[in-house]
């Protein structure tokens, strides 16, 4: 990691009992992706079926970050949960679109919109 990069910062809150809001700040790459995975796996382990990842302060993400998002998606689907991305930064949005991740994992403009989307997911048969 170069001196110019921001170290990864992860803050987790629970807006609802079954939802973890994970605010990620900094570069999400091969050096930091494992840390994010540990946070996400811990939330699923503790019964949070829905993970909301706020990526608005992530200026760069490589394939390691994409793999973590897809892995979290797979793990939450096994417990009838979901993953949602909140306000991905433009460079990250581009990567998500180019790789097709945005076709699988929904993005939301805000936490409130994501929580509404999560509620809709829960009410589907």
Automatic annotation (TrEMBL):
One Pfam family named in its UniProt record: STAS
Membrane-traversing stretches: none
Domain of life of the native organism: Bacteria
Signal peptide: none
STAS domain: residues covered: 17-118
Family: Belongs to the anti-sigma-factor antagonist family.
Annotated protein name in UniProt: Anti-sigma factor antagonist
Organism: Streptomyces lannensis
Organismal lineage: Bacteria, Bacillati, Actinomycetota, Actinomycetes, Kitasatosporales
């Amino acid at each position: 990691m170069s001196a110019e990069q921001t170290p990864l910062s992860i803050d987790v809150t629970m807006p609802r009992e079954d939802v973890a809001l994970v605010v990620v700040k900094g570069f999400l790459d091969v050096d930091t992706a494992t840390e994010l995975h540990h946070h996400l796996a811990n939330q699923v382990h503790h019964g949070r079926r829905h993970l909301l990842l706020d990526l608005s302060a992530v200026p760069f993400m490589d394939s390691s970050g994409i793999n973590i998002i897809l892995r979290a998606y797979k793990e939450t689907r096994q417990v009838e949960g979901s993953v949602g991305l909140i306000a991905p930064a433009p460079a990250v949005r581009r990567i998500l679109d180019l790789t097709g991740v945005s076709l699988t994992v929904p993005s939301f403009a805000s936490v409130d919109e994501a929580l509404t989307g999560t509620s809709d997911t829960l009410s589907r048969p």
